[in-house]
Amino acid sequence: MAKLTDEQINEALTNLEGWKREGDSIKRKIKTDNFPQTMGLVTAIGALCQQFDHHPDWLTLKYSEVEMSFSTHSENGITDKDVNIAKEINKLKF
User: Fold this and answer.
1) Digits of tens for pLDDT over the chain (94 positions)?
2) How far is CA 17 from CA 2, 8, 75, in A?
3) Distance of CA 25 to CAs 11, 21, 35, 37, 90, Å?
4) What is the side-by-side order of every strand in the sheet holding 19-22?
5) What is the b/e burial string over 46-64, where b = at least 16 CB atoms within 10 angstroms of the residue's CB?
6) What does the pLDDT read at residue 94?
C-alpha cells in the first residue's frame, strides 16, 4: 500500500469530519458524556481495528475523552488504510 501524497491526504481530510493531520499521521479526539460511554467507544473502535487489522496509537483516554492516531508504519506515513479506518470510525454512533 503506497503512502498518500500531501494532496491526496488533504482531499481525504475534507471528507473526514473531526480528523486532522499531524505529521505522518491522522488523528481525532472524541468527547463523550461519561466514562461508560468512553469505554464503549474504545471497545467499538477496537473491534473495527481488529476487523481491519489496523490499530491506532491511543493518545488520550480520559473520563470523557479519547484521542487516537493512525499511520501506516510500514510505509512511514498515511495510506488509504488509515483513511479507510477513519471513515469506519466516523460511522460509529457516539
Assistant:
1) 899 999 999 999 999 999 999 999 999 999 999 999 999 999 999 999 999 999 999 999 999 999 999 999 999 999 999 999 999 999 998 7
2) 23, 16, 24
3) 15, 6, 26, 26, 17
4) 19-22, 25-31, 65-70, 57-62
5) eebbeeeebebeeeeeeee
6) 73
The amino acid at 26: I
SS (H, E, C) 9-69: HHHHHHCCCCEEEECCEEEEEEECCCHHHHHHHHHHHHHHHHHHCCCCEEEEEECCEEEEE
What would the grid cell of residue 50 be?
Answer: 481488529
